[in-house]
Structure formats: C-alpha cells, structure tokens
C-alpha cells in the first residue's frame, strides 16, 4: 500500500460517514425567531431522548474526524516507511492519537507497549513514539544499538541526567540549568560547536569523576573494603550450624549487601548519623516509579516526603563530614576516610560546588541519584544470582566444584577469594550474565546535540532523544539461543553463555545466525568457555560505549564475590521458588521480587 493509496482508502469512507452525520438533521423544522436550545420537557418521549443522544454522538463524531484522519495518515506513513525502507531514513512515527500520543501506554503498560512498538512484521525495528511533551526514538535493532555505542556523538547521557535529577531526585531549577545548558559532551575535549565554560562542563566533569572513582585503583580499594564489611555484616547475623528460618531473602540481601555497598562507597558516618537512611532509601526506591511518571505531590505525598527526608539526611552528612574531616583521617593507600568514604565523594564536593547554580541542595540531589543507582540495582542482581544457584542443587554443586581453587577459609581471616581466578570462572560468569539478561529492564538514553547520526540503516535527528530498552534487546528471540525452545529467552538457563566448540547448538547466540557461524569459525580453543562475543547490541545491562555504567566493574565483583562467599560458607534452602517479579519499575533498572521469599540458612558443615 502506498501513502496515496492509504489516504484514498481512508477518504473512501467519507460518503457514508457524511450521510450518517447529516441524516439525523434531515426533515427537521426549526422555526424562525425561536430559541433552538430549550429547557428539556420532563414529558419528553423516549424517542426524543434518543434523537438528542444521537445528535450528541454525531457531533462527537464530527469533532473526532481530524483525529481519525491524522491517525490514518500516520498509520499509512508508518507502513510505507517500513515496507519501503531505505538506508539513511528517519525512523517512522508509531501510530497514535494526536496530542496524547503513546503517553499512557508508555508509562502504564511499558513492557508490552515497547515490545510491540519496536517490532514490525516479526522483526525488531526502530520507531519514533510521540509523548505528551516530546517524542523519543526507540532503537532496537542489534546493529543499530552497536553503532550507537561506537558513535562519540551519542555518548552523552546528559538528557537522562536532567530528567532524573528534576523529577526523581528533586533538584531545584537553578541547579538543573547547568545540565540543560551543557552541550559540550562527556569527553575531555569539548564539542567544537559548544561554548560552555570549562568549569561548567558538568557532563564531562561528572563522568570523569565517576570513572576515576569507580575504576582502576580506587575501585579495587573500595571493593576490598566491601569484602570486609560484608563479612562483618554476615557475622552479626549470628548464623550457626543449625537452620535459621528467615522470612524474606531480599531483605536479607538489603541488610547485608546493601549496607556494605553504602558504607564502602560513602563511609560509616552517613549511616551513623542517619540511622534510618537505609530504610528510607528502600522506601524511596518503591516510590521512584511514581516520581518518574511526574505525578503531582497531592497524588503521591509519601514519595515527596521520603525524598525530602533523604535529601535532608545527605546534607546533614555534608555538614558532619566538613566539621570532622582532617587530612590525617585519610588512608594514604586507599584514599578512604571514615567521614566521606571514597575520595571520589570529596572530589565531587569540590567539583560540583564550583559549577554555576550548584549548592548543597543541588549536590544532595546528585548524590541521591548516585546512591540510589549504586545500591538498588546491585542488591537485587546479587540476590537473584544467588537465588538461582541455591534453587538448583545440581547447579550449586557445579559452582562449588568450579570455584574450589579460587576460595579458601582460615581460622584467623575466615573466607577469602582470589578475584583474578574467580572472574575467570566460566560457569559463574554465565550465571551472572544470564541473571542480568533476564532481570535488568533499563532504558539507556542518548542524544546528539549538534548533528544527525546514522545507526544501522537509520538516521537519528540532531537534538532528539534516542532510547534503547535492555528488555527488548534481552528478549530478542531471533538473536538469542533458545535451543529449539528448550530454553526460552523468558526463562533462566545457567549455561546460556557457555560456548562448546564441539556442540553447534551451544553458546548465547542463535546458531542459525551468520554472526554465530562467524564466531565459531574463529575459535582458538576446543574447551568450553564463557562467551559474550557478538553481543554488543544484545547484552546491554550496563548500556554500552563510552558512557556505559562506570560502576559495572565494581558491580560484577560484588555479585561474584558475594555468591562465592555464600555458596562456600553457607547452606541456603529457598522455600518459595515460584514467585512473581515486579515490573512496575520497567525501564528503571533491575526487577525485584513482588512478594517475600522465605528461606532458611545455616553455616556449612565440613564435607
């Protein structure tokens, strides 16, 4: 169907529609000099009421004509663009009603809507969806996603920073201006078309600070501290040789792993002077979905209240740390101190407060965002990885055997792990990667401020928001290996990322794809091994490219270490293995259990 044919088809209904519109008014006499609209007669017959209702419906139909015509036109153009695709064209508009667009479907039925909108004729495609305020380009084809990660002009997450800080983390408008004004990019060298002052390059300064604080030497020192704190936290649980019943597996991980992440990154003072901070953080996490929908305060008062409490507690932490910190408090090797925690936090204070419009209140919103993303994704990811290991006795045995040469236990130091070895364990890596593939439901947002960009066969306009859904990428049945339906993408398969050169049906990619064939042809080993090759546009729990999550290396170590510690030191029996996941926060990170998961735990006895 061509565009012209589509329009002609929609106009062919006009004669019958016109007859239906005018028919109720035919043969009606309206006397001169009389009021047409009169007070209804209480004795009006049912026939009179029927005529009035009929006229109202027809009037409504007349008003709807422009909307229907617009929808039919958009529908025709949408099909035309997909059936006559040419390299370099702009993704077509997804059909929706004018003005409101796809707003309600996008916000309240996100998973099914995004999956539907990004599919055409059974294949993933790219599309523009119109929302109440603006539009978003949804990029879903693996090649297009991989091209996004490679393009330096699509490396800036500044748009999502702005939206998140304004609506979720409560930054005031004066502070937001620094983010909306910065079009210089995240690289050390600013974009040549940008005129932002060096001290106001908040995109680059933020990214650079996070990279230095969450990678390399600083990351390793933070991780060492995490290990010590996690073991201390577990010791306080008073778990012995006898079974202890616990009502909620997720709460167990929040209290032990979550607090260890907080303290290792931000120091003990934050929690010491704000004893309710952790509980408030998880209450806030439950409300983030409502804040993200931009609902007014009178509809979600609890969300605004808990956010205000957290922002106040963070500013209390600033004041306390400034009063008590001395250079002598700092560990010269780790650059960690008990007041600010990681040196990254001290440097962020100095850096952010030197930017125009930033004050303690604005920086507190920024730090709330950092704290929330640091804790509320890695905790459920760790819990779900451990859950799948302990729920499958055969898998648990395989994991214990595979990591036995990487872990040890001594009476003096307790449990320890060689992370260099642990990070190379194929099965543990596969379980980790599969957990993130199955449960991470994030939107990765990019925007090219100065020029149009080509990704795959599509062109993305300048200064327009482009978004990738990890859920759509992770559920792509044409790319992922399901072994002829034995392991659907919607289910957990511990060995999905294990590639066996002797087994053509193994590996993460669909064996029938050319990419899988090419990868196999270049294998240099005959051993089974973990493989994520060819998945740059398919496995994206941390995003990709220059602005991929800077905390991903720390997060992976936290997840693998915690699981290694638990399987080596404890027995865990999960009672509720069939539970529902909560997708209400679709697009905001890792799924969490909808209900409590009962379990029991004890120390391992000598084998």
Automatic annotation (TrEMBL):
Binding site for heme: 549
UniProt entry keywords in alphabetical sequence: Heme, Iron, Membrane, Metal-binding, Transmembrane, Transmembrane helix
Family label: Belongs to the cytochrome P450 family.
One function term, GO molecular function aspect: heme binding
Necessary cofactors: heme
Annotated transmembrane regions: 57-78
Protein name per the record: Cytochrome P450
Record-linked InterPro entries: CYP450_sterol_14alpha_dmase, Cyt_P450_E_grp-IV, Cyt_P450_sf
């Amino acid at each position: 169907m061509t565009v012209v044919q589509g329009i002609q088809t929609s106009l062919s209904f006009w004669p019958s529609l016109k007859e239906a519109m005018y028919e109720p008014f035919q043969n009606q006499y309206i006397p001169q000099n009389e009021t047409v609209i009169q007070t209804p007669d209480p004795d009006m017959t049912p026939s009179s009421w029927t005529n009035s209702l009929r006229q109202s419906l027809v009037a409504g139909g007349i008003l709807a004509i422009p909307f229907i015509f617009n929808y039919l036109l958009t529908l025709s153009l949408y099909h035309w663009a997909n059936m006559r695709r040419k390299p370099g064209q702009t993704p077509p508009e997804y059909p929706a009603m004018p003005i409101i667009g796809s707003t309600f479907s996008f916000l309240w039925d996100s998973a099914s809507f995004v999956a539907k909108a990004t599919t055409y004729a059974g294949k993933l495609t790219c599309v523009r969806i119109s929302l109440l305020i603006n539009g978003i380009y949804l990029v879903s084809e693996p090649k297009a996603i991989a091209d996004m990660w490679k393009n330096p002009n699509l490396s800036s997450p500044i748009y999502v920073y702005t939206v998140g800080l304004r609506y979720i983390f409560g930054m005031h408008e004066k502070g937001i201006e620094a983010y909306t004004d910065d079009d210089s990019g995240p690289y050390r060298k600013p974009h040549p078309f940008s005129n932002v002052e060096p001290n106001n390059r908040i995109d680059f300064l933020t990214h650079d600070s996070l990279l230095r604080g969450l990678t390399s030497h600083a990351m390793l020192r933070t991780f060492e501290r995490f290990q010590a704190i996690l073991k201390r936290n577990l010791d306080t649980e008073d778990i012995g040789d006898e079974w202890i019943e616990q009502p909620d597996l997720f709460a167990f991980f929040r209290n032990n792993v979550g607090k260890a992440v907080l303290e290792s990154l931000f120091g003990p003072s934050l929690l010491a002077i704000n004893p309710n901070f952790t509980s408030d953080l998880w209450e806030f996490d439950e409300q983030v979905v409502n804040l993200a929908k931009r609902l007014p305060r009178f509809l979600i008062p609890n969300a605004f209240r808990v956010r205000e409490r957290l922002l106040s507690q963070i500013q209390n932490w600033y004041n306390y740390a400034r009063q008590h910190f001395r250079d002598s408090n700092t560990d010269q090797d780790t650059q960690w101190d008990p007041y600010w925690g990681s040196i990254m936090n001290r440097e962020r204070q100095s850096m952010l407060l030197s930017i125009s419009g930033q004050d303690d209140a604005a920086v507190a919103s920024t730090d709330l965002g950092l704290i929330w993303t640091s804790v509320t994704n890695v905790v459920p990811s760790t819990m779900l990885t451990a859950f799948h290991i302990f729920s499958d006795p055969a898998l648990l045995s395989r994991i214990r055997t595979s990591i036995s040469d990487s872990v040890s236990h001594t009476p003096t130091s307790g449990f320890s792990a060689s992370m260099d070895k642990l990070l190379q364990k194929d099965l543990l890596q596969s379980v980790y990667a599969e957990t993130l593939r199955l449960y991470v439901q994030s939107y990765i947002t990019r925007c090219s401020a100065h020029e149009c960009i080509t990704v795959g066969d599509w062109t993305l306009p300048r200064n327009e928001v482009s978004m990738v859904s990890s859920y759509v990428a992770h559920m792509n049945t044409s790319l992922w290996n399901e072994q002829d339906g034995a392991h659907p993408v919607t289910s957990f398969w511990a060995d999905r990322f294990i590639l066996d050169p002797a087994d053509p049906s193994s590996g993460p990619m669909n064996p029938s794809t050319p990419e899988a064939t090419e990868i196999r042809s270049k294998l240099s080993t005959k051993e089974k091994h973990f493989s994520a090759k060819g998945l740059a546009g398919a496995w994206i729990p941390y995003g990709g490219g220059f602005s991929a999550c800077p905390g991903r290396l720390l997060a992976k170590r936290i997840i693998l270490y915690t699981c290694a510690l638990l399987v080596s030191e404890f027995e865990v029996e999960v009672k509720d293995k069939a539970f529902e996941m909560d997708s209400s926060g679709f697009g905001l990170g890792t799924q969490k259990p909808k209900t409590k998961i009962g379990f029991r735990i004890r120390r391992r006895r000598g084998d």
